[in-house]
């Protein structure tokens, strides 16, 4: 069965610092990968997704993620974080033929001004 | 466009009691999902409906959990009887269809119902 690992459970950064959140998946075939974000008090929303093509995917709010097939990774990056990026970030993989998402455990990011 | 609506937002019950959650998906969305998110974990799919039929309920604990979507629109998820380990946030999501371009349709999530079982 497919699985997703997020190794950083809590990350604390100062504003303007660079961000990289790790995500590794288990499946060796074709994968469709996602990053979701949940801001405090808000619902889960899609940040970016990868299906095929350019392995560097750009999402909303200046986030990007790089798909590295050889490393089974899909890390999320942002060159300069803001206080408003404080949230929980979830990596997910599409599993099977019925739009089923498998989520990682999430990473809580706290950005201090 | 209105989002996915869920109620109640919070519920506290004692173990062995029953509880029900309600979800109204985005208008026109054929597929509805219920997820369980335990503290410190990511959301886990419990059940997926396509219109009023079940597509996937492989991770639904059927001895105590049930869900229905009778008219293919809103849905209820019930737990009877509840256990301590059922304490979690229950998320509802919807998508246009269960398949689309590259086999994917974006899922839109509701605010969730936080259940505490004492």
Name the helix and strand elements of chain A from N-terminus to C-terminus, one letter apiece. EEEEEEEEEEEE
Structural class by SSE content of chain A: mainly beta
Cα radius of gyration of chain B in angstroms: 14 Å
Query: What is the helical fraction of chain A, as a range of percent?
Result: under 10%
Count of runs of 4 or more consecutive helical residues of chain B: 0
Report how far the terminal alpha carbons of chain B are from each other.
37 Å
**pLDDT < 50 stretches of chain B:** none
The SS-based structural class of chain B is mainly beta
Radius of gyration of chain A: 13 Å
For the sheet with most strands of chain B, the description reads: 7 strands, mixed
Quaternary organisation of the protein chains: heterodimer
- Percent in helix of chain B: under 10%
Uncertain parts of chain A? none
Strand count of chain B: 11
Major beta-sheet overview of chain A: 6 strands, mixed
Topology pattern of chain B, helix = H, strand = E:
EEEEEEEEEEE
What coarse outline of chain A follows from CA principal-axis ratios? globular
- Shape call of chain B: globular
Proportion of beta-strand residues of chain A: over 45%
Task: Walk me through the structure.
The complex is a heterodimer of chains A (113) and B (118). The termini of chain A are far apart. Chain A has strands at 4-5, 10-14, 19-21, 24-25, 33-38, 45-50, 56-58, 64-68, 73-78, 87-95, 100-103, 107-112. With 113 residues, chain A is mainly β. In chain A, strands 2, 5, 6, 10, 11 and 12 form a six-stranded mixed beta sheet that branches. In chain A, strands 3-9-8-7 form a four-stranded antiparallel beta sheet, with no helix packed on it. The radius of gyration of chain A is 13 Å and the shape is globular. In chain B, 0% of the residues lie in helices and 47% in strands. In chain B, the strands form two sheets. In chain B, strands 2, 4, 5, 6, 9, 10 and 11 form a seven-stranded mixed beta sheet that branches. With 118 residues, chain B is mainly β. The model of chain B has no long low-confidence stretch (mean pLDDT 92). Chain B has strands at 5-7, 10-13, 19-24, 31-37, 44-50, 53-56, 65-68, 75-79, 88-95, 108-109, 113-117. At the A-B interface, strand 6, strand 10 and strand 11 of A face strand 5 and strand 9 of B.
């Amino acid at each position: 069965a497919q699985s997703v690992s997020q190794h950083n459970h809590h990350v604390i950064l100062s504003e303007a610092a660079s961000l990289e959140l790790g995500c590794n998946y288990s499946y060796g075939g074709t994968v469709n990968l996602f990053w979701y974000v949940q801001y405090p008090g808000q619902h889960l929303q899609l940040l970016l997704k990868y299906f095929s093509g350019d392995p560097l995917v750009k999402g909303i709010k200046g986030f990007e993620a790089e798909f590295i097939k050889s490393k089974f990774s899909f890390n999320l990056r942002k060159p300069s974080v803001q206080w408003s990026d404080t949230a929980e970030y979830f990596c997910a993989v599409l599993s099977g033929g019925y739009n089923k998402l498998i989520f990682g455990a999430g990473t809580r990011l706290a950005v201090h001004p | 466009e209105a989002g996915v609506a869920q109620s109640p937002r919070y519920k506290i019950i004692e173990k062995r009691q029953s509880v029900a959650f309600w979800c109204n998906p985005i208008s026109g969305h054929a597929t509805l999902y219920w997820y369980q998110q335990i503290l410190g974990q990511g959301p886990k799919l419990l059940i997926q409906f396509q219109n009023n039929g079940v597509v996937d309920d492989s991770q639904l604990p059927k001895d105590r959990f049930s869900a229905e979507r009778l008219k293919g629109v809103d849905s209820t998820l019930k737990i009877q009887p509840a256990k301590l380990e059922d304490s979690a946030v229950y998320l509802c999501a919807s998508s246009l269809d269960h398949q689309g371009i590259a086999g994917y349709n974006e899922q839109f999530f509701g605010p969730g119902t936080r259940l505490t079982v004492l």
